[in-house]
Amino acid sequence: MTSQPFISSAFTRTILSHARQSGLCQEQLLQRAGICLSLLEGQDLHVPAHLVERLWHECERAGAGVSFGCELVNGMATTTLRGLNILLDSAATLRASLACFTEFMPRVTNCVVAELEEGGGQARLHLRSVGQQTHFFGLDAATLTLVRNIARRLGRAPAEVFVAVHLTPQQAAGQWLRSVGVEVQSGGHPCLTLPSSSLDEPLLGANGFLHQSMLRHWQTAAVQHARSDSLEMARHWLTAGDQPIERIAERLGYRQPSNFIRAFRKQFGITPKQFRLGL
How far is residue 246's CA from residue 6's CA, in Å, rounded to a whole number? Predict the structure, then answer.
């Protein structure tokens, strides 16, 4: 995973789509946030997180209400996570579903980390910001999407699933959560608490064949993503030092230098030696 914090272009498009529905000018928001349209044209492109954070603030300055993030839930579920939701819905149990969520969420964004913790008969799904605290619009969207999706997968109302949900003081999701009977508490980051026994309940949409097919797809994509990042590191090592190409290949996990050279040429169009020579 790349070290630069990012958010998927699909999520960014969801923000802009809702902003447009709210009467805000999309072009003006993009200009003020410093986001180029080219960053939003592909399905799996990454937008630097600080630009998306700036976009949140520009939406707020342009007149978006405090519940703006809460209203993104439908767009988040149908557009942003795409195939990941199919993977999560088709898992056999909630535990398996959440394991996939925490493992593959970094493909959607790496500026928020999801962690499942168990103890005292309860399970807690933490959403922690990496570095600077994420804007409350984004935290609201993520929190309510998880609450609604988990309850839907179990076929029960949110109040029957969750013991409590912790929100940061700035979040506006508390109003909706209380309206459906979920206890809301204050915390330093969003946290969903439910009985540990719920983790082993079967999901309504469980489909072993579909789940395994989607799981193979996401695992393969994750390997390709990691390999791409390793080749970016190779470029740094090729320019920052005099390590032999064979040593760089070994450090990146390639058993044969020829495999590394082939992968490098496929990614960048030239061999590592040509890159080092500045061709």
Answer: 32
User: What global pTM score does this model have?
Assistant: 0.77
The string of pLDDT tens digits covering residues 111-157 is: 899 999 999 999 999 999 887 789 999 999 999 999 999 999 999 99
pLDDT tens per residue across span 231-247? 667 777 787 667 788 88
Strands 191-195 and 122-129: antiparallel
Rounded to an integer, what distance in angstroms lies between the CA atom of residue 137 and that of residue 144?
Answer: 11
CATH code, residues 6-200: 3.90.1520
Q: Which fold has domain 210-276?
A: Arc Repressor Mutant, subunit A (1.10.10)
Q: Report strand pairing: 122-129 vs 46-48.
A: unpaired
SS3 160: helix
Domain(s) labelled CATH 3.90.1520 in the chain stretch across: 6-200
Amino acid found at 248: I
In the chain, residues under CATH classification 1.10.10.60 are 210-276
How many C-beta atoms surround the C-beta of residue 252 within 10 A? 17
